[in-house]
Amino acid sequence: MVRVPLTPDERERGARLGEVLRAARGPRSMTEVAAAVGMPVETLRKIESGRVPTPAFFTIAALATELSLPLDALVAACRPEPDAAESRSA
């Protein structure tokens, strides 16, 4: 199976996801959070750095639960910013 390259928007969304998760983790270590959700710390490191821009739903759900981050807030935080041009044309 050939993997389709990610679009710039998908890579940007992955970077935003990583930023939101890092902020929600606060002072807790990656090791502590990864262990709490049962994932390798390297997986969390890749998600937070944006190197895994499309992680599995259940991975994100487990992280959101552990970090007390509502999924709807996480989705909203990862949405692209509206372009200034779009808001002017409306």
The pLDDT mean sits at 88
Provide the β-strand percentage band.
under 5%
Quaternary structure? single chain
Large-scale geometry: globular
Q: What is the number of helical segments per DSSP (H or I, 4+ residues)?
A: 6
Q: Any idea what the radius of gyration is?
A: 15 Å
Termini separation comes to: 42 Å
What is the strand tally?
Answer: 0
> What percent of the residues sit in helical stretches (DSSP H or I)?
55-70%
Low-confidence stretches: none
Largest sheet descriptor: none
- Which structural class is indicated by helix and strand composition? mainly alpha
Order of secondary-structure elements: HHHHHH
Plain-language structure description:
Helix content is 66%, strand content 0%. The mean pLDDT is 88. It is mainly α. Helix 2 crosses helix 3 (41-49) and helix 2 (30-37) packs across helix 4. It has helices spanning 8-25, 30-37, 41-49, 57-66, 71-78, 84-89. The protein is globular, with a radius of gyration of 15 Å.
Attribute tags:
globular; 90 residues; mainly alpha
Question: How are the SSEs placed, and which strands pair?
Answer:
Blueprint: H1 8-25, H2 30-37, H3 41-49, H4 57-66, H5 71-78, H6 84-89
Helix pairs in contact: 1-3, 2-3, 2-4
What can be said about this structure in brief?
The chain is mainly alpha-helical and 90 residues long. It is built from six helices and no strands. The longest helix has 18 residues, at 8-25.
